[in-house]
Amino acid sequence: MSGDPLFAGGVDWVVVAFVVVKALIGFTIVMVGVIFMIWFERKVIADMQNRIGPNRAGRWGLAQTLADGIKLIFKEDLWPDKADKPVFRLAPYLSVAPAFLTFTIVPIGGVFSGGNDGAVELFGRRTWLQVADPPVGVLFLLAMSSIAVYGIMLAGWSSGSKYPLLGSVRASAQMVSYEAALGLSVVAVVLLSGSLSTHDIVAAQAGSILDWNVIATAGVPFAIFCVAATAELNRPPFDLVEAEQELVGGFHTEYSSIRFGMFYLAEFMNTITMSAIIVTLFLGGPAGPVLFGPPLIWGILWFTLKVLVFLFTFVWLRATLPRYRYDQLMDLGWKRLIPLALGWLLVIGAQRIGLDRGWDRFVTGAASLVVLTLAAVALFGAIRVAERRRQSDQFGEVVA
Q1: At 126, is the secondary structure helix, strand, or coil?
Q2: 275 exposed, middle or buried (CB, 10 Å; 0-12, 13-18, 19+)?
Q3: Cα dihedral value 166, 169, 175, 178, nearest 10
């Protein structure tokens, strides 16, 4: 059972009511966040491109997303003649559900400073400000990330159309490629925290900013996770799945009405959820100083501000970077990120073993970095030789 103190006295109707209310509040936060995220992205990109952006529906265009959603609900729902209808119906739900389920394990508040465990007291019951904290929360995160690919894959395959199928094949290859690097960077966090619980991971970083995993791991797993997460989200510059110049609209070309809206919803919901996961794993989650007033407010405030930084970064990347070619996308995942993530994980593992055995930290770290550097030189040398050989073979074929 979860480590949440809410369950310490057993399960009764009050506990069930707490869980239901927390799930509803979590769902509301995500849905409202999606509405504002769509508006925020359109406005920020408009400012970067010297445009106005949405400004008609509501003050500053705040109601534009709501108007677009209502329009999608009432539009005609189209069915391709060659579609596999049961799978065609199921695919949007397989994209939306993992995004929300991942958010349920994220601590969005709580007091972690001063030796507190992050629990707050509400209506006479102590609980954590997250929907659920399973002991295997990190594994649950990776499982939901893996399931999300099925929604995209099945949407393209079930459409009975060539371009959506190409987009779904790209999606499966892209997500599988970057899932490995993402998982290895998460393992580095688990190795330092000693727990798979997201709450325990936040609590382990609550001492000071020097305890944040982004600093404790020297920033390398953090950078790898951010790049891999961007590819997992199909966000620019890794949006090969939806490349409109090549694939019309990608895997959801044949979708319309609310089913298309669900894919649109899943994309922005995943962006918010993944930003929250990055903050939880590497930046201390809601942990932060309590300056004045009620301590409960500061945890939620710090969490919100950290998430907003990453949401802005995702929008910034979309507005500035050109799309990768597909071969560049695969090379970055398999030839750069995975070897780097695996090598850095071995360095962190050596440091932990040395700490347990009483070895000198400087000597252990220096030896690990030397071995990692030699391995990197050998790997990239082999990659360059292979690329030259392939280019020479292609050139020879052209001349022949």
Answers
A1: strand
A2: buried
A3: -90
Q: What is the DSSP string of 373-392?
A: HHHHHHHHHHHHHHHHHHHH
pTM of the model: 0.90
pLDDT of 299-320, one tens digit each?
A: 899 999 999 999 999 999 998 9
Where do the structural domains in the chain lie, given as residue ranges? Answer: 5-324
**Token pair listed for 345:** 């994980």
For the segment 205-241, what is each residue's pLDDT rounded down to a tens digit?
Answer: 887 888 899 998 888 999 999 999 999 888 888 888 8
Instruction: State which amino acid sits at residue 379.
Output: L
Two tokens, residue 132: 């659920």
Q: Residue type for 52, please?
A: I
Amino acid letter at 71? K
Q: State the Cα–Cα distance between residues 199 and 41, nearest whole angstrom.
A: 30
Task: Name every residue whose Cβ is closer than 8 Å to that of residue 22 and which is 6 or more positions away in sequence.
Answer: 127, 130, 131
User: Which is nearest to 108 in space by CA: 300, 301, 306?
Assistant: 300
Provide the angle, in degrees to the nearest 10, between the axes of the packed helices 338-357 and 220-232.
140
- Distance between CA atoms of 42 and 44, rounded to whole angstroms? 6
Q: How far apart are CA 214 and CA 211, in angstroms?
A: 8
Residues across the chain: 400
